[in-house]
Amino acid sequence: MVEAFEGNKAETKTMLPVIRSFMAAHDLRDVTVVADAGMISDANQNAIEDAKLSFILGTKIPELPYVVKKWRTNHSGEDIPDGHVFTQPWPATQAQKAKGRRDKVIYYQYKADRARRTLRGIDEQVAKAEKAVAGKVAVKRNRFIKLTGTTKSVNRDLEAKARDLAGLKGYTTNIQNPTPEFVIGAYHNLWRIEKSFRMSKHDLQARPIYHHKRESIDAHLTIVFAALAVSRFIEDCTGWSIKKFVQTARRYRTVQIRADHRILTAEDPLPTDLRDALAQIT
């Protein structure tokens, strides 16, 4: 199923129509929408909830969550264990329940490696901000630079807040009886979708395209997604990436030579690994 919309149509007007078409095509009563926080606006989340659909969404963390503050108060001087998950129930209000909305749960997971990467990025940005404030480099876009009129300074409050949040990632769901392992695991499987998106956009040349008629656009996208399906089939059968398969197989050709009334076929012998891969497909 391929859906295409005009380029000036906002995501809030495209997500639900696609979901409803998918549910109708496969006779589904409910689906679970899994998406990154950067892809889901508040309007989209409200629309998903109003449609009474299940979801697992990445959650932006503007402030240090209460459950994390409480843990730090009770474990003063201790580091949060790597992989620790904080659970924050988020019951629906009576007004929300009247609209059919469900209770939600927010999981906050702390990862030491994520914290190290984030803190390293904060250190680099703060160092650049300090140089800009000192007049050593030009002021560029930097969230840690505070401008008050013509006065520049390093926003230490924002720096402290960013350091407090380092290593935490939030996940919100409204599915019934969730577990953090299932919710976080489902979210982290998004890399498979992202991989397909990158492949369809670049390797399969889904864009840029220069079609203007709706029929041409639909035909182009149908071919792209058919090629994506074939690529996924080859990867599943062979265990190879499609890039490795194409680069390995494209070196081998079969050549037919006409000599008088005879046709001679010349071909390079296939290596064992490629022959085995082809056998898996056929």
UniProtKB/TrEMBL annotation:
One Pfam annotation, family name?
DDE_Tnp_1
Task: Give the matching SUPFAM superfamilies.
Answer: Ribonuclease H-like (SSF53098)
User: Which sequence ranges form a coiled-coil region, renumbered to this chain?
Assistant: none
Which branch of life, at top level?
Answer: Bacteria
Where in the numbering of this chain does the Transposase IS4-like domain appear? 6-228
GO biological process terms, semicolon-separated: DNA transposition
Q: Which residues cross the membrane?
A: none
Task: Give this protein's Gene Ontology molecular function annotations.
Answer: DNA binding; transposase activity
Q: InterPro entries, from UniProt?
A: IS1634_transpos, RNaseH-like_sf, Transposase_11
Q: What is this protein called?
A: Transposase
